[in-house]
Amino acid sequence: MRVTVEMHGPFQQYNKDGQRRAELDLEGDLTVRDLLASLGVDVDEPWNAGLNGTLASPSDRLSDGAFLIVFPPIEGG
Q1: How many CB atoms lie within 10 A of CB 51?
Q2: How far is residue 1's CA from residue 47's CA, in Å, rounded to a whole number?
Q3: In the chain, what percentage of residues exceed pLDDT 90?
Q4: Which domains does the chain have, with CATH numbers?
Q5: Contacts 24+ apart (CB under 8 A), 37-44
Q6: What is the pLDDT of residues 11-43, one digit of tens each?
Q7: Residue 17 forms beta bridges with which residues?
Q8: Residue 34 to residues 10, 17, 74: CA-CA distances in angstroms?
């Protein structure tokens, strides 16, 4: 399956060649957590993700053509 991954802030370093956006060819039935772990992200540290325009949870399954955005927690008030 092909998935587009867009990383923001410090997560950009985990994308292919440090690019903000990369298209990845993946095999298997992967979750958001699986994909992030395979890219080297410490999934036990705080992160947020959107999958196809909706806030994602770590257990959400990826599908062909998915668009995943990963960004750090937002602080402020």
Answers
A1: 19
A2: 24
A3: 91
A4: 2-71 (3.10.20.30)
A5: 39/5, 39/14, 39/15, 40/14, 41/11, 41/14, 41/70
A6: 999 998 889 999 999 999 999 999 999 999 999
A7: none
A8: 19, 20, 23
Q: Three-class SS of residue 22?
A: strand
- Provide the residue type at 31 as one letter: T
CB 58 within 8 A of CB 32: yes
How far apart (Å, rounded) are the C-alpha atoms in residues 75 and 52? Answer: 23
Whether pLDDT at 70 is above 80: yes
End-to-end Cα, the chain, rounded Å: 39
